[in-house]
Specification:
heterodimer, A: 277 residues, mainly alpha, Ferritin, 0% strand, globular, disordered N terminus, B: 221 residues, alpha/beta, GMP Synthetase, Chain A, domain 3, 2 domains, three-stranded mixed beta sheet
Chain lengths: 277, 221
């Protein structure tokens, strides 16, 4: 048999909703599956948020940039979901994981599910996320898990590009006009309490960190802080003081925004179960 | 970005982590992993379609099957850049024939490159045209694709087609350093970047200050 498509789009037959629901509400069955799922959810949700700019960006070039970054992230999500689905061995696949889970089963950072807001907030979010993702994937290339290391080697180059692009815009906006500066500063202040969650590690993560499979996020804090403080300083933006940080996404406690995002993203599969191209 | 591009700030002023040289990184793009550090060479050149001496065979042996498969697959082009074959691009990682079955291995350029599905379909069609129906197309992520795998022939074809080829050495330094991109039309190095993201994942939009022509640049990756 010839496999036409290395990433076949397949869904459960219509009328099989119950079995699928049971499948996709099971959050995980191993620390590694959960770890892959969490990173996949981050990439998918941020990728989807960026795709919302399609047709709305302030200029054509930036529209293409945001869509391209979103495409990279959704590509990363696919690799991670495929891995998570294999590890779960529960009949799930990348599409079921993306389209047939409700918000409480998602494990993404709160940071990535927040609405886009204006262009400044969109850019600042990509910047805060990429400033973490870039050293994260670099470190992950040395993971004892070959599959994660391979995904990291691909993702790292993409994240480096996202970081450079967003950092340039942070500087351009912050050190730009009075209005762009004000909007960029508002974005920094709004997003700041959501940046702490990137550095969380629970018992499941720590098991993988001890085994050399996962990256200890604490080890990335200095690199992240230096990138952020250097760029914000260059952008003449004020970095908020360290303070209380939002948390919950990693354990499925989400803001109201994720449900609205999923309602749109999952509409087709929910309305027409099993639809294929 | 016509306005912002002209007044835009370039990356030379960015703080050092963004220009390159993360201290914890060693050994170039391969990191610390041995197998990453020695990527396989670009699988070119391929044998010619007609190896000869196989016409009388009732059941082609593994070598001739492999040769036929190689010849068929090496004709497949990138759907977005039709002057490049998937071998020129470095996407084609290998073709094997085992027990009468063909396995083609490809690797994506960018994680989300939508052309990958199309390339896989084109490979299947090319094999079918060569009479090979028992084939599997396998996608691997490791080692990660780099523009260093693009053949010299591929670079020349790109330039002739009007796309500036990627800088030969990939890696973080090239990624964040000041890039010199020669205009594919007039050869001038007096060029500027208009937009960091272009019409496909793998391209950026540049402009030549000498001949004033805009052009695509195949990004170093």
């Amino acid at each position: 048999m010839v496999q036409v498509d290395p990433f076949p789009v397949r869904f459960a037959p219509a009328g099989d909703d119950k079995a699928d629901a049971a499948t996709v509400t099971t959050p995980t069955n191993s620390p590694l599956a959960l770890y892959a799922l969490r990173r996949a959810d981050d990439a998918l949700i941020l990728g989807h948020r960026l795709s919302e700019w399609c047709g709305h960006a302030p200029m054509l070039e930036e529209e293409m940039a945001l869509a391209n970054i979103g495409l990279d992230l959704i590509g990363q999500a696919r690799s991670l979901y495929q891995y998570a689905a294999e590890l779960r061995a529960d009949g799930s696949d990348e599409d079921k994981l993306a389209y047939l889970r409700d918000a409480p089963a998602y494990r993404n950072l709160l940071l990535v599910e927040l609405p886009n807001g204006d262009f400044a907030r969109t850019i600042l979010r990509v910047f805060f996320y990429s400033a973490f993702a870039d050293p994260f994937w670099q470190a992950m290339m040395r993971s004892a898990d070959e599959r994660l290391a391979a995904i990291a080697a691909k993702s790292e180059k993409e994240s480096a590009y996202h970081l450079r692009h967003s950092a340039e815009w942070v500087i351009r906006l912050g050190d730009g006009t009075e209005e762009s500066h004000r909007r960029a500063q508002e974005a920094v202040d709004y997003l700041w309490p959501y940046t702490g969650e990137m550095f969380e590690a629970d018992a499941s993560d720590r098991e993988l960190i001890a085994a050399g499979i996962a990256v200890d996020p604490e080890s990335l804090r200095d690199a992240w802080a230096k990138t952020v403080s250097d760029v914000l300083a260059e952008a003449t933006l004020v970095q908020p003081a360290a303070g209380w940080m939002q948390s919950g996404g990693r354990s499925g406690r989400h803001s109201e925004h994720l449900g609205h995002l999923l309602a749109e993203m999952q509409f087709l599969q929910r309305a027409y179960p099993g639809a294929t191209w | 970005m016509s306005g912002a591009g002209a007044g835009g700030r370039d990356v030379g002023h960015l703080p050092s982590p963004l220009r390159g040289g993360w201290p914890e990184r060693s050994g170039g793009s391969g990191g610390g992993r041995d197998s990453v550090a020695s990527p396989p060479t670009t699988p070119t050149p391929f044998p010619s379609p007609k190896g000869g001496g196989e016409s009388g065979a009732a059941t082609p042996g593994p070598d001739t099957l492999k040769q036929r498969a190689l010849a068929a697959v090496s004709e497949v082009c990138d759907p977005e850049i039709p002057v490049l074959t998937i071998a020129d691009l470095g996407v084609l990682r290998g073709v094997e024939a085992v027990d009468g079955r063909v396995e083609v291995t490809i690797t994506p350029t960018y994680s989300g490159c939508p052309a990958m599905n199309m390339m896989a379909l084109e490979i299947e069609l090319a094999l079918a045209r060569a009479g090979i129906s028992d084939a599997t197309i396998r996608t691997v992520l490791h080692p990660a694709w780099t523009t260093d795998w693009m053949s010299e022939e591929g670079r020349r074809k790109l330039r002739d087609y009007g796309i500036a080829p990627p800088s030969p050495a990939s890696g973080r330094r090239a990624l964040f350093g000041r890039e010199v991109v020669a205009c594919p039309r007039c050869g001038s190095e007096d060029t500027e970047r208009l937009a960091e993201f272009g019409s496909t994942s793998c391209k950026a939009l540049w402009r030549c200050r000498s001949c004033r022509e805009p052009f695509d640049y195949f990004k170093c990756h």
